[in-house]
Amino acid sequence: MSFRASLVQLRTPASQDAALAQALPLVRQAAGEGARLIATPEATNLLQKDKARLAAVLKPLEDDPCVAGLRAAAADLGVWLLIGSALVRRPDGKAANRSLLVTPKGEIAAWYDKLHMFDVDLPTGETARESESYEPGDRAAVADVEGVRLGLSICYDLRFPMLYRALAAAGAEVLTIPAAFTRPTGEAHWEVLMRARAIETGSFVLAPAQGGFHEDGRGTYGHSLAVAPWGQVIGKLDHDEPGVLTVDLDLEEVVKARAAIPALKNARAFTGP
């Protein structure tokens, strides 16, 4: 079974309306290239690192104009759309970093809240405290797209291989890792970690990324990437500009990789140390 997917690379601004205006032409371009699944990066609807400004503009999922516009586009184009994540306000008033799978009818088929919060002090002096702005999720998610099983994740989740093993064990053939990677960590770790997650689970990896210097002052790495189950890069954008990467996935490669290296079957429980 062959399946065409497109990754949309963005440089998302600091408002939902401006974010929609940037994303829509690229989503339409991807649909024109024949993609059945179109995936956008983390924080597709908004990038704002100032906590007070972020809190002032966050909206509930059902009121977010970027999410609404992308759902309408999916219905108009007749495609599956993975909104890599939208930054939204939960009913309890807390914020969520939420991945949304939208059907060709514009309905939300599945969602996933980012599990792992990026709380770090980088060697460059840059700091991040996602836990000060977002409530982490507490469940993994696998969803079906025309017979293809997707495992949902977001950015910093990439560094926790046990999540991807669990997704693959639950039937995921394609792992989606939308991201807004920092430039220093992107240069050092982006491609090697994506290839590692593909190899150790025998899965395709689709990683649409934010790229460039944003309105809120942050810099992101770009270099959206697609990796096959044997670890080879089958497509990448070698830059940080907005754009579209379209690839064809042969799902038989998942079967072959997992038969050749049956790591999912061979894993054993253990005690200690």
Can you describe what's shown?
There is one protein chain. The chain is of the alpha/beta class and 273 residues long. It has one domain: Carbon-nitrogen hydrolase (Nitrilase/N-carbamoyl-D-aminoacid amidohydrolase, 4-Layer Sandwich), CATH 3.60.110. The chain contains seven helices and 16 strands. The protein has a six-stranded mixed sheet with strand order 5-4-3-2-1-16. A six-stranded mixed sheet has the order 8-9-10-11-14-15, covered by helices on one side. Helix 1 packs parallel to helix 3. The chain is globular, with a radius of gyration of 17 Å. The mean pLDDT is 96.
Give a brief outline of the structure.
This protein is an alpha/beta fold and 273 residues long. The protein is built from seven helices and 16 strands. The chain has a single domain, classed as Nitrilase/N-carbamoyl-D-aminoacid amidohydrolase, CATH 3.60.110.10.
